[in-house]
From TrEMBL:
This is Phosphotriesterase. Binds 2 divalent metal cations per subunit. GO terms for molecular function: hydrolase activity; zinc ion binding. A divalent metal cation 2 binds at E134, H167, H195. Keywords: Hydrolase, Metal-binding. Belongs to the metallo-dependent hydrolases superfamily. Phosphotriesterase family. Coiled coil: none annotated.
Length: 302
């Protein structure tokens, strides 16, 4: 089957090595009251993505959605200049980042917007969203509005078969998200629970993996929350327990200061620093390739 990207549909075999949860243009600076949270440095981003492509990354899933400063024309510009495949997303993030329609509309009306962005295209562009995400929950709680958005995401998934990518706040509420999706008859093998590497816990990871979803080790390099050595240990543990098919990787870059020019680690960190470290700690090259190529392909296929 095909994958919808900003450059039109591509065959799933063209995905290649994939970063599963990234932002190439995102603005959360209003609610965060921090101008660093407006990632809009297009020239630096193009430069980094061009380099990322040259070292073997073929695709990026861009999970910025409605209310997060999503800007499809910027994504098109990055694709045109770099030829990196970019998969776009629909949905609403979490409180307090919702646009007003989340409060005004009911879940089926919100789902209608998401379904239209998948089937017809994102307003004023020819790009069709492929991923329902990132849809999220707050730390240790799911608010009333977040519950409505998760229900709308489930409805959209039932109608379209497209995958749902979630955001957890520091890894919390993952099992509750899965419980809700099960109740809403979502195919759990099309769900990626995000940010489970911010708060690593073996037993918690196993309980989540036993549900059959994907586990996002998608904040790699954010060592203020968790050391990368630990991320690697927890990935190894999941592999040993038979869950290699459920692991996906990314960095979740969201800030100017994450870019190389802003003094940060840059988009190439995963490829150039994390993977060599993982290999030196005993994860095989074949396992890494499986995680970076086969798992995204299976998850994104609809
Ligand atoms: Zn997130």
């Amino acid at each position: 089957m095909t994958i919808q990207t900003v450059s039109g549909t591509i065959d799933k075999e063209q995905l290649g090595r994939t970063y599963i949860h990234e932002h190439l243009n995102i603005d959360l600076s209003g609610p965060k009251k921090d101008s660093d949270a407006n990632l809009d440095n297009i020239d630096s981003i193009v430069e980094e993505i061009e380099y990322l492509k040259s070292i073997g990354v073929d695709s990026i899933v861009e999970v910025t959605n409605i209310g997060m400063g999503r800007n499809i024309s910027k994504l098109e510009e990055v694709w045109k200049k770099t030829k990196m495949n970019i998969v776009a997303s629909t949905g609403y993030y979490k409180e307090p980042f919702y646009p007003v329609e989340v409060y005004d509309l009911d879940y089926s009306e919100l789902a209608k917007i998401m379904i239209s962005e998948i089937n017809k295209g994102i307003k004023y562009t020819e790009t069709k969203a492929h991923v329902i995400g990132e849809v999220g929950t707050s730390k240790d709680t799911i608010t009333h509005a977040e519950l409505k958005v998760l229900k709308a995401a489930a409805f959209t998934h039932r109608e379209t078969g497209h995958p749902i990518f979630t955001h957890t706040s520091l890894g919390t509420m993952a099992l509750e998200q899965l419980e809700l999706f099960k109740k809403e008859k979502v195919n759990i093998s099309k769900v990626l629970i995000g940010h489970l590497d911010l708060n690593c816990d073996k037993e918690y990871h196993l309980r989540i993996a036993d549900c059959g979803c994907y586990l996002g080790f998608d904040t790699i390099g954010k060592t203020k929350y968790e050391k990368d050595e630990n991320r690697i240990k927890y990935i190894k543990y999941l592999i040993e327990r038979g869950h290699i098919d459920q692991i996906v990787l990314s960095q979740d870059m969201t800030r100017k200061s994450h870019l190389k020019k802003g003094g940060g680690i840059g988009y190439s960190y995963l490829m150039e620093k994390f993977i060599p470290k993982a290999i030196s700690m005993g994860i095989s090259k074949e396992e890494i390739e499986h995680i970076m190529i086969e798992n995204p392909k299976r998850l994104l296929d609809v």
